[in-house]
Amino acid sequence: MDQGRAPAVRIEGLWKQFGQQVAVAGVDLELPAGQFIGLVGPNGAGKTTTLSMVTGLLRPDSGRVEIGGHDVWSDPVAVKSRIGVLPEGLRLFERLSGRELLEYTGRLRGLPGDEVDRRATQLLDVLDLAVAQHKLVVDYSTGMRKKIGLAAALLHNPEVLFLDEPFEGVDPVSAQTIRGVLERYTASGATVVFSSHVMELVESLCSWVAVMAAGRIRAQGPLAEVRGAAASLQAAFLELVGAQRTASGDNLDWLGGGAR
Amino acid sequence: MNSTSQKQVARPGAASLTPVFVRLKLSLLRNGLRQSSGRKAVYITSIVLVALFTALQLLGLTALRGTAHLAALTTLLAVVLALGWAVVPLFFASGDETLDPTRLVMLPLRPVPLVTALLTASLIGVGPAFTFAIIVGSVIATAHGAAAAVVGVFAVVLTLLVCLALARAVATANVRLLTSRRGRDLAVLSGLIIGVGMQFVSLGVRKLGAAGGLHALVPVADVLRWVPPGSAMDAVRAAGDGSYGAAVAELALSAGALALLLWWWQRSLTRLMTAPDSSTLQAATQPDKARAGRSGLAGALPAGRTGAVMLRSLRYIWRDPKTKTAWMSSLTLGVLVPMLNAAQGHGSLYFAFFAPALLGMQMYNQFGQDTSAFWMVLQTIASPRDAYVELRARAYALSLIAVPYVLIAVTGVAAVTGAWRSLPEVLGMSFAMLGALLGTGAMTSALFPYSIPQGSGFKNVAPSQVGIAWLSLFGGLIAGAVICSPLIALTIWLHVSGEFGQMWILLPLGAVYGLGAAWAGLRLAGPRVVARLPEILLAVSKG
């Protein structure tokens, strides 16, 4: 990819601590523009905390975040119109129908009414939500919620899209739909940053990865570079975080299903 | 597996199943005591209170023995008890874990032993004990003679079983509703429904007191004596009066009802445990109901953020059970309190201030009402102007209902009390108060946000944030009063100096004053919201 472009996201010395627990311990990252970027790490590595701080949902204790050259905390006007966010574990306005939610979000973003209508119709179509568009979001399944959240995040055509665990709890069909939309979106030059703990997924989707464990970045770079000589990203990752396979002891020797 | 063990697994008899369920119920009751000390205290207190109440009503009913038309009361009581048993579990479905048979769906159980075991298990508990005591009290109060005593024993058993079987059958038939989103919404509204129900009960009791005796109940009882389990209760009186034929017929009616209920229960149980899960069915069969996308209201609202926020706020008042409960209570109490006071003769027009006060309070904790969905708002607010427009739109939506409501409520109270002369000043003050509460509400929404737990109809503050909530509410109310104080001073001065001819000036003055107070509050709150966006999100995401 072209090295001349400015990084989409630049993170310097990001730090967050909840009481005694250090969630993010000095993260430095430069995420290249126009790529499909995966932030991987085990549960509790600090992925969600990092993404929340990058997108302005959580105030960092210290550190700087720049998106497209604009500081997230001192220049929110420039940043908020350029990013789309799909957080994990936060609600949507669930008492609106899918279409109403998109109309609401679009108008908050300052888009004209008929433009919101046009984009919402297309997004609902592409994401297979057209049939359920008049149902309340509270009655949506997990996959449908992720898809309507994605539609809301894409509605204002952001430059950088941040997705926290977009495939968690999503059925294979919805996952494929989401994947298709994201691939089309990055092909047009936009940047996607998503977090996941499923290595196979990251490996198959991303061109660039950052590996996170215990609040720090363990490795970052193009996929092939991070994977190195290892057979898969999974193997490289286990090596990086120093996780050893626990000896599968003979404690469960009765487990087999057949004998009784 | 060999054949005998297969038989054992497939058909556990009633004899083996019943003790299991009884033990399960006893364990659940015992485990009620193994909670945190706070909940344990609540649990024990409730048991003691119920025991005390039970003893009192037992004494009361026994003391009433011999009163004329007492059977009318006990018949009514039995029917009301059964009604309570039918309705209450719908609101508190999670209260009794053995009530949800879908938990047992993976176990190889036959319907008849299961129904027997569940019915036996449901005899254990505080509720059944309380019901049993009331029924026994009723029978003691109305049984005259040996025959009546014998009938009384049957009446006690039948009434109790009808109550329990009714509760179980209704809950089982509605389990789909109860475990669905609509059921949970209903549970959140239950506080409101029970509150309104209490008003009717107290009204009925007062009417009865005014009528001066139980004979007022006789026409009601004449009907209810043929409605099980009221019929079982009336059989005791009939046996005492010597009309044995009527007594037997009434008992048989209740027994028939019990059999019918058990049959219905067993049937719904079988269907429930062999049919696919409700969510699957709903997804497969529910037709897509189109909501009016651009209704008249949506088209009439201004474009941009203002219109979008107003529309969402108004939709939430109707669609979100938590917001709906708050609004319904405010709208009801806002007229009810001044009207009831007026109806009792000692009403003053000043009670009409309840209307603007209760509605203005809806502006408080605006972002808490959003729950963690506030992040969607946060993502679109970048400048103090955005935040100001956001809050102003919410205030507009609120005023759209509050201003006409206050106008009608205050005028209505003036009509009832006849205090037309005070109308301009009270109306003016009401608008000033509404405006002041909108302004302080915007400020406290920015400074003291807190989470509103969603699932429960009774908790409105997350446990760790009670202090903030009180600070927000009382700080805001005091600030609102202080803001209104110049107007209050002017009113008092006009009264003291006898300038009654000038009172009308308070109406336009109050309206303008309220507008100014609201505007100032919204203006001041804007920059504070922008500066505190992540902190607000954190505070409202605890529910």
Automatic annotation (TrEMBL), chain A:
What positions does the domain ABC transporter occupy?
A: 9-239
- Annotated organism of origin: Streptantibioticus rubrisoli
Q: Which domain of life is it from?
A: Bacteria
The protein's predominant localisation is membrane
Establish whether keyword Transport is in the entry.
yes
Which keywords does the record carry?
Answer: Antibiotic resistance, ATP-binding, Nucleotide-binding, Transport
What is the recorded name of this protein?
ABC transporter ATP-binding protein
The molecular function terms in GO held by this entry are: ATP binding
A Pfam family per the record: ABC_tran
For membrane topology, the record states:
Peripheral membrane protein
| Compartment(s) | Cell membrane
Q: Does the keyword ATP-binding apply?
A: yes
Q: Sorted alphabetically, which InterPro entries does this protein's record hold?
A: AAA+_ATPase, ABC_transporter-like_ATP-bd, ABC_transporter_ATP-binding, P-loop_NTPase
From TrEMBL, chain B:
Does the record carry Glycoprotein as a key word? Answer: no
Q: Which UniProt keywords apply?
A: Membrane, Transmembrane, Transmembrane helix
Membrane-spanning regions, if any?
41-64, 70-93, 114-140, 146-166, 186-205, 244-265, 395-420, 426-448, 468-496, 502-522
Query: What is the protein name for this chain?
Result: Transporter
